[in-house]
Amino acid sequence: MAMRGVALAIGLAFTGCGGDEDGGDTDSTTPTDSETDTGGDPTGGTTTPQALSVTLRDPAGAGMGGINVNFCNAAGCRSGPTAADGSISFDNVELVPYALEPIAAEGSGLATPLVPLTFAADEVKAFDLVVPPLGPASPLGSTSEEEFQGLFVTVGAAGIQEPAFHEPATEIAGVLADPAAWPPINLPGTVLAVWYLAPFNYAAPAGLPTRITNSYGLADGATAHVYVGSYDDFAWLDGGTVTAGGGFLTGASLPLLSTVVLIQE
Q1: Cα distance between residue 29 and residue 65, in whole Å
Q2: Helix (H, G, I), strand (E, B) or coil at 45
Q3: In whole angstroms, what is the distance from residue 149 CA to residue 174 CA?
Q4: What single-letter DSSP state applies at residue 133?
Q5: DSSP 3-state of 28
Q6: Reduced to 3 states, what is the DSSP secondary structure of residue 159?
Q7: Is the distance from CB of 153 to CB of 258 less than 8 angstroms?
Q8: Cβ neighbours for 44, distance < 8 A, ≥ 6 positions apart
Q9: Which runs of consecutive H residues, i.e. helices, occur in the chain?
């Protein structure tokens, strides 16, 4: 399955970002502004107290070493491989929006759990990020509605746009994240579900019609909200409101394929 090549290409599509297929740069496991792959934060030679420490784990809890991680803002990306225990740290973090993206090896079948992040003054974030395998892949048809453990997305090959410098994908896959392993989500409300979709970061200018199985006990007429993590905007994009009825939540439209979050506001 060629899903990993999709996520890898995002590092190339973002100006100044990059990463190797085998996990990438091996020069440092704690990248700083002077140790960036392709740019960095606009610190101007100064230091800041904000910092980030992340440990990548598989669903069984084991650390995932040797996976390249991109930590990007509008100025560029800072990249490095995780240590043997799955950990990686970034210091001198600016008070601007970021996107965190682990890039597993091509052909690994692993999801890309993109996480938009913001920092408060003097904040040090530390968390585990579980990287699960994707579910079974399906051909990327012209009008097919694909189901990813309760998330139904109608994706046509003509309705999505691949990132720059990457050939069009032929398959689509996704996975519902374990509630015990959700990434930090800086959105108002209660998180009901999180999915990771591939091909990662494929844009959908006209939107991808979406419905969700109502397994959350929402009464008919109740509403929730869908958001999608954007690598290019370092933020959660609005996928629209969904309304409960007939066993489903309907009304959302995904602007791209990435991390999808269902929120009860």
Answers
A1: 10
A2: coil
A3: 8
A4: B
A5: coil
A6: helix
A7: no
A8: none
A9: 3-13
Return the structure tokens found at 206: 């006209």
Task: Locate the DSSP E strands across the chain.
Answer: 51-57, 68-73, 76-81, 87-90, 98-103, 115-117, 124-130, 138-139, 145-148, 151-154, 171-176, 190-198, 203-213, 223-230, 235-245, 248-256, 259-264
CA distances to 9, 95, 97, 116, 121 from 124, rounded to whole Å, are 29, 12, 15, 15, 9
**Structure tokens that stand for 49 in this block:** 């107290």
pLDDT tens for the 265 residues of the chain, in order: 333 333 333 333 333 343 333 333 333 344 443 334 433 444 455 788 999 999 999 999 999 999 999 999 999 999 999 999 999 999 999 999 999 999 988 789 999 999 999 999 999 999 999 999 999 998 887 678 899 999 999 987 667 888 887 777 888 999 999 999 999 999 999 999 999 999 999 999 999 999 999 999 999 999 999 999 999 999 999 999 999 999 999 999 999 999 999 999 8
